[in-house]
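To: structure desk
From: M.T.
Subject: fold request, one chain
Message: Could you run this one when you get a chance? Sequence is below, nothing fancy, just the single chain.
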Amino acid sequence: MKVIVGGIIEKNGKYLLVQEAQKKCYKKWNFPAGHLDFNESLEQGAIREIKEETGCDVELNGVCYIANRILEDDLFVMIVFNAKLIKENIEYDKEEILDVKWFDYSEIMNKMDDKLRGSYVKKAVYNQNNKLIAPIEIVNILKD
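Reply: Done. Structure tokens follow.
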């Protein structure tokens, strides 16, 4: 099972997306996200992935999308946080990310269907834009 964590970052009505360099999704746009590492919390993983893929520092303040996909031989769960931009410093590994760019909400919703990594990108951005955000307090670390 794989756990994917990431975040939706909005600034002045625009959303920060990353253009993937991976062969299976080459040139597709996605929100910054990646696999949760062993021994890190959901929040730590999302903050790390956002920093690695964009160079930006964020604070997580809610959850705007949760999904899972059942594959023939695997399962993955995706948790997407609402991320408040603390420091914009666009830097990224060109081996993993081709570009990082701000997109207008209407452009994502109306003009990018074939350019997005999946329909989940639009759903997560829609949720954030329409304030369908669960409080961050619903995310917990089990200790027992």
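Reply (cont.): Residues 8 and 62 are 10 Å apart (CA to CA). Let me know if you need anything else for the meeting.
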